[in-house]
Design brief:
By secondary structure, the chain is α/β, with parallel strands linked by helices. The chain has a single domain, classed as 3-Layer(aba) Sandwich (UDP-N-acetylmuramoyl-L-alanine:D-glutamate ligase), CATH 3.40.1190.20. The chain is 36% helix and 27% strand. A nine-stranded mixed β-sheet has the order 5-4-1-8-9-10-11-12-13, with helices on both faces. α1 runs antiparallel to α10 and α9 packs across α10. The longest helix is centred in the last third of the chain and has 15 residues. It starts with a helix and ends with a helix.
Length: 333
């Protein structure tokens, strides 16, 4: 019965209209092979054989949502440069609405380049410039939000602390969400401590949870249900953030859901193999939001998110989970 229950929830994903707002990035992958060490320094020489580009950051959250519904849109900033053009082109090609993407000559497109050799990441190179939107860009963003939020079922905030999300913009989003009765979920960044009153759920990873709670991080305890420090951090975040629930992703330990007046709910990892954790958090917040929007309970949505994350870490590159892959995991239970 459990698999059928989740299948029915997933069937409702297609009707959900989801807007993702946050820091847009372009993920670049250089694939190659290593056959020698450089004579210039003790580092491997990678002979590049292929290049791949994927939407990253908030754009990857939208890409994950697009796997389940045709009604996915995204907003954020990108540069009026070749990288920004490539990012917008990739989003268009995926069927994601990009009216809310603000491209401007003064903006800088964040690019993360990963060099992969023999299925292992050799190095990552980041090209980024942290800058808040200008007054004109903020005005354009708020105007877009005023027109877009009434037409969606949920809005996902994906904060990578690259500058786009500011408190005035957060206040605008929260006011519109409250006025129109929409669902709001947040993937926060501890170095950009914005207030999100009225959020249905906030999803940090374990390290972010301790940092945001103002607590010293401790080593994981197995099982997590006996991790007193983690439980204290989760309960503190419920009070600090005022959210209806807090979902803490725990890597190889799965996820822990904290709700008011309920015991923490742990869902163990569903990953069969781990090749690349790039974008797993994006998948988690995307599917968790889809679940809540489709009427799932927070525990059911967390289980769906956990299964989807288990799928993507078994793939190389910034990957997504399909509906068939998601449901296949439940059929094995």
């Amino acid at each position: 019965m459990e698999g059928l229950q989740y299948e029915r929830i997933a069937e409702r994903f297609a009707a959900q209209r989801i807007l993702v707002a946050g820091d847009l990035m372009l993920d670049e992958f250089l694939w190659g092979k290593v056959s020698r060490i450089s004579p210039e320094a003790p580092v491997p020489v990678v002979d590049v054989t292929a290049e791949s580009y994927y939407p990253g950051g908030a754009a990857n959250v939208a890409r994950n949502i697009r796997e389940f519904t045709a009604h996915a849109s995204v907003m954020g900033m990108a540069g009026a440069d070749p990288y920004g053009d490539r990012l917008v082109s990739l989003l268009h090609g995926s069927g994601i609405e990009t009216t809310g993407v603000l491209q401007h000559a003064s903006s800088f497109t964040t690019v993360k380049t990963r060099i992969i050799a023999r299925h292992q990441q050799v190095v990552r190179v980041d090209r980024e410039r942290h800058a808040p939107p200008t007054a004109e860009q903020t005005e354009r963003a708020m105007a877009y939000l005023a027109s877009a939020i009434p037409l969606v079922d949920a809005i996902v905030i994906s904060d990578y602390c690259k500058g786009f999300l500011t408190q005035p913009l957060a206040d605008c989003i929260c006011d519109l969400v409250r006025a129109h009765g929409k669902l709001l979920t947040v993937d926060p960044h501890p170095h950009n401590p914005l207030r999100w009153p009225g959020a249905a759920a906030i999803k940090p990873n374990r390290a972010e949870a301790f940092l945001s709670a103002g607590m010293r991080a401790t080593d994981p305890v197995d099982p997590p249900t006996e991790d007193e420090h983690l439980i204290a951090a989760g309960n503190r975040l419920l009070e600090i953030w005022g959210a209806e629930c807090v979902l803490v992703t725990l890597g190889e330990q799965g996820m822990m859901l904290f709700q008011r007046n309920a015991a923490p709910h742990h869902t163990p990892t569903r990953a069969q193999a781990v090749f690349d954790v790039s974008g797993a958090g994006d998948t988690a917040i995307a599917v968790f939001t889809l679940g809540l929007a489709a009427g799932a309970s927070p525990c059911e949505a967390a289980e769906l998110a956990n299964h989807a994350s288990g799928v993507v870490v078994g793939k190389l590159g910034t990957a997504t989970a399909t509906k068939d892959e998601l449901l296949a995991g439940f059929r094995k239970i």
